[in-house]
């Protein structure tokens, strides 16, 4: 059994899906990335904008259509936004 199948909390499942999408994008595994997107949809999980952007870039690079509204900003923008949000979350946790 895979770890992702053991996780039932939607938040943590979404985090795992984000890491998987990053991996698929880095390895240019288009079919695996599309399958992950379809699985997330079937489970009623919303992928974050960075994951959607990664998938869109991957699909366009493979000459395939993007089946959703592509987030408008660059990959770098979403990466930086995630980094900033993570830092803010860490600061807030330390203050509590």
TrEMBL record:
InterPro entries in UniProt: LRP130
Protein name: Uncharacterized protein
GO biological process: regulation of mitochondrial translation
Cellular component GO terms held in the UniProt record: mitochondrion; nucleus
An annotated Gene Ontology molecular function: mRNA 3'-UTR binding
Domain of life: Eukaryota
């Amino acid at each position: 059994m895979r770890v992702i199948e053991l996780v039932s909390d939607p938040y943590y499942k979404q985090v795992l899906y984000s890491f998987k999408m990053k991996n698929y994008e880095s390895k240019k595994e288009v079919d695996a990335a599309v399958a992950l997107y379809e699985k997330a949809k079937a489970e009623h999980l919303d992928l974050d904008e960075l994951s959607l952007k990664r998938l869109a870039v991957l699909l366009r690079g493979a000459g395939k259509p993007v089946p959703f509204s592509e987030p408008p900003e660059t990959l770098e923008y979403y990466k930086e936004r995630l980094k900033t949000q993570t830092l803010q979350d860490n600061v807030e946790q330390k203050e509590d």
